[in-house]
Input
Amino acid sequence: MVGASLAGLRAVEAARKAGFTGRITLVGEEPHLPYDRPPLSKAYLDTRPGGQAPEPPVFRSERHLREHLQVDLRLGKAATGLDVANKQVHLGDEVLDYDALVIATGATARTLRGTEGLAGVHTLRTLDDAVAVRKALDAGARTVVVGAGFIGSEVASAARKRGLPVTVVEAAPTPLTRAVGAEMGAVCGELHRRHGTDLRCGVGVDRIEGDGRTERVVLSDGTVVAADLVVVGVGAAPATAWLEGSGLRIDDGVVCDKYLRAGADGVYAAGDVARWHNPLFDRTMRLEHWTSAAEQAAVAARNAVNPARATAYRTVPYFWSDWYDSRIQFVGVPAADEVRIVTGDPARDRRVVALYREGDRLAGALAINGQNVIMKYRGLIMKGASWADALAFAERRRVAAAPA
Amino acid sequence: MKISVDRTKCTGLGICESLAPDVFEIDDNGDLVLKTDTVPEGQLADVEAAVEGCPTEALRLHQAEPGSA
Output
């Protein structure tokens, strides 16, 4: 297993659960034991009594990994090459032979060109990133977040929770345009404004200035915003550089079939790095979601140890993000011919649910504080429900909830 | 098999409900409700998927206590 985050760990666990007793090596570029990333932009950034740092969200102890799961851990070692003909993974000078390989190297946060070496500018992807961002918030940083995506918005929430001033700069006209579409992105953006975050859309970052460390951010419209901390949340790119020349097909991720097979004997991919064919939507997808990473890893590992009984991975994508006191959840795909709000009035209500239509099908659903209903829509999408069925379901819920 | 939920970990993300809706449901307050604490006939695989799919590792499956129903 190459990649020691959620997918790498889950691949190990699934292989063992499937009865595989052979050798398993887990290779990870970071020196840390496998840890959970969603908390890094959420609870990990909260204030703590006495100001002490929280425990890192490590999944399993080293002893559990080595003794219970019988894993040969190679942490702090980056994979540098793959030779599918000889079935070997290169870690610099070291060579590992494999019979089956699960590629789970994830994605790398995109950075802003020209900010290298300027202290106070961070991405938020790794534990080390989170430690640095947390430290800056502890010091009372004036924060500028670049990119109103999930990570950036969660950082803004964390800073506001501490009462610190935050500006979020988003190049697109609304937050989350790609993830939930412009219409509902605008609704989510209102959460920032309501909580005192200065959200500026349709404007880019021209440069970050400072003497060795960040002092101010100059926006593309010439505005200057003072900043001690800049968090760059402008997306992530699949970590495939080490696969160059391997012969595997790379196209914004490792291209896989529905069984998560990457096109070479015994090679599978899972998690953020994998672009696979999702039979449920009959299209290729690359997801950067916790749920699909965990599930793909389990499927890939089971298929790797038992290829004769390979199963396809089909899913309705799901992600969540916590902004201030609101939870945003999305299921399905936002590529939609129509978006219709079926619950709540965004101007007035805390709970808002919107449905996304593609052709005559229900393709997606977004809930803001709609934990009670979002998974019911996920079930409908999984079953291939029609748009009419989805609207009828929403209407039944509305009638049932209406005061008598 | 019995199902239990650690309320100190559960945040009501609801992945369990989408995998085993006969067992798990998120209520109007956003809290997880166990519709039954016993795995229904023929649904062990779904409940196992829900336990494994929980991002906060709040769910557990265990053998029923000897002598209990």
The helical segments of chain B are 15-19, 44-52. Residues 16 and 50 of chain B are 4 Å apart (CA to CA). Chain B has a mean pLDDT of 92.
